[in-house]
Amino acid sequence: MLTLKCPYCGVQACETELSPGYEAHLKRFGPGSSDDDFETYLFTRPNVKGVHFERWRHAYGCGKWFLAARCTTTLEVFGTYSAQTPAPPAEIIEAIKSKRPDWSPET
Amino acid sequence: MSNAMSVLEGAVSTGFVTVRDAGLTGMVSVRADLTDAATVAALSSCGITVPVVRQIVDGVAWMAPDELLLVTEYADAPALAQKVQAAMADTHALVHVVSDARAVLRVEGAGTKEALAKLCPVDLATLAPGEVRRTRLAQVAAAFWLEDAENAQIICFRSVADYVFGVLQMSARKGSEVGVFTR
Ligand SMILES: [Zn+2]
């Protein structure tokens, strides 16, 4: 059971109250971009085994989208944060590093 | 003018708790940024105080960072919506009467938390009276709050009211008590 704290309403929401939005912090390639960039944006995901940044929606609750950092193998949650955040915030990075010293954010 | 009817038509079911149609209830949905000073001022001019997160106070329920639900008498909802609409004319807001889009049910009795806990992924052991919990009730969206330890109100969409009544009835079937909150 995955439980994520919604940063908007503060509820500890179990997975069944949430809708998945898949990988977070994607850079959009839209009209005018190259075919390769557009394809990568649409389809190519690292499918990480370990630390992952994701979008979730509190679908049955307050309805808001938010972001979460968790481990895809252990379901350990490092933190959740506002959807209006272009990159993982420092406190989330710190929380991950304290649990996963070998991990470093991708550049 | 049609004759307004509550969708459950006064249904009552008695199990280890009583599940009943709460009858026609006035509900006005307000969508606006609740942290915005102009929004707060406009609501205040109508006598509406924005509650803290997830609370319901005097019929004003915090539903989301940009959503309130005003709960009132069925007949009073249109006038209330008009008043709020007028006060919020200069702010980015949406005000709408949703009385006929929703249904309200009541669960009453010592096993109220238990009947709800079987259906909703909510920690009923820590849920305080007056806290609105929007959640999943079996397979549909619902919001409920405890008035006290033994009474709850549930709001769901009108179209699923019969389903909600049915699953609550089943959850409250006599002999199916788990007793987890009484130990
Ligand atoms: Zn939420």
TrEMBL record, chain A:
One of the Pfam families matching this protein, by short name: SoxD
Family matches, as InterPro entries: SoxD, SoxD_sf
Recorded superkingdom: Bacteria
UniProt GO MF annotations: sarcosine oxidase activity
Biological processes per GO annotation: tetrahydrofolate metabolic process
UniProt name for this protein: Sarcosine oxidase, delta subunit family
Automatic annotation (TrEMBL), chain B:
Cross-referenced InterPro entries: SoxG, TrmE/GcvT-like
Name of this chain's protein: Sarcosine oxidase subunit gamma
